[in-house]
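Hey, I'm writing a tutorial for new members on how sequence and structure tokens pair up, and I'd like a real worked example in the thread rather than a made-up one. If someone can provide the structure for the chain below, I'll link this post from the tutorial.
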Amino acid sequence: MTKPFDYFVVLAEMRTGSNFLEANINGFERLNCLGEAFNPHFIGYPNKDDCLGVTLEQRTADPQVLIDAVKANEELSGFRYFHDHEPRVLNTILDDPRCAKIILTRNPLDSYVSWKIAQATGQWKLTDVRRRRDSKVKFNGVEFRRHVEELQDFQVSLMRSLQVSGQTAFYIAYEDLHDIQVMNGLAKFIGHAGELEELNQKLKRQNPSPLSEKVSNFDEVTLALAELDRFNLNRTPNFEPRHGAAVPSYVACAVAPLLFLPLRSGPQATVTQWMANVDRIEPDGLIRSFSQKSLRQWKKGHRGHRSFTVIRHPVARVHAAFCDCILAAEQGVYKKIRNTLRRVYKMPLPKDPPGSDYTAEEHKAGFLAFLGFVKANLAGQTGIRQDAHWASQTTALQGFGDVALPDMIVREDEMMSYLPALAMQVGRMDAPDPVAVDPGHPVALEAIYDDEIEKLCQDIYKRDYIAFGFEAWK
């Protein structure tokens, strides 16, 4: 029978019981856990010169050498890996379906206090209780929160990697380590037929007393835990699909080395007119419709280039999307969306683009209805696509990162200062100031804006308000 795995990894952290887990894995015949094989400061164990004949110097020069040695070992072998170990092998390990993943976890408060005690006493293993060193430690709330964040980030990255690659792991909690049935189940998971009759008796629990007896300022523990959002109660849910880099929408100057990464429903007309003025050409002379290949060619031909984007206040941006994509649409997909919003969602929208008899009251009623739709749409609760014109700017910027992160993120109300300063960075000392282009909306936002609109937008675009520090619109 073909063995399911070539090697294994114990994904753990300090003070989670990984030494005890390793000792029990090594209790099985022909299973061999090799310690912290990728610890950046030693190889396998402190004061050891090599691991399976691979020295620290060889592993540092090429970590894959040690991976190959582990896989080639006669015994089914593996190692312990912590979040701060050799980063160059992590993706190799996680992406390899022939590597069995064992994920060991422990209550982060317990592991943190245990780590502090080990630091204070210098005792990292205990084999004889008569030599046990005791110490009360001082709890540091800031340090603990950092500890929790690092653990959570690592665990989330592990989970995502396994989900994306269609793999599973054997999860084991610190409390399970003394359950021999769980330990034998772990062996079955990695393809070993043997069983342990008893657990390792050499290693002892170092700090079995309650936390209140191990921490000198125990009252501060309660305060620190109260500040932690363990259940992500304050998380802003995000159901928007990931957006691509939208390279065809990029706009570049023909002469000046300036590249604009536009966000839909932003001030594109104002920005592109300014870029054309910098080049002293008509806007039609700007370079558009990029492919990734032509974008690379433009960058090579424009050394010292600067890329930028302009973010708009969420209220102004979603109002522009409403006016330009819904009200003004005369054909194409947006006209179909407007018709669907009228027919299916019963929104008070004009059948055709509004005429001279269109009132501010009608505009406000339609806009409020549209905001209700956008909220449901971005939460994945409608059958209409989540369009880039009203998707969050945070999500759009994340999509840019796949190809070209902007050198500068400019707020619309600061364009007058920052765009000329950006042009100066590329040698255009005489760059003109931007001149706002009238959007031509049937009703200005100023005519309908109130607290109700602001609160709705803050609810819909909470991530943008937080990410960019937006306050109420004007």
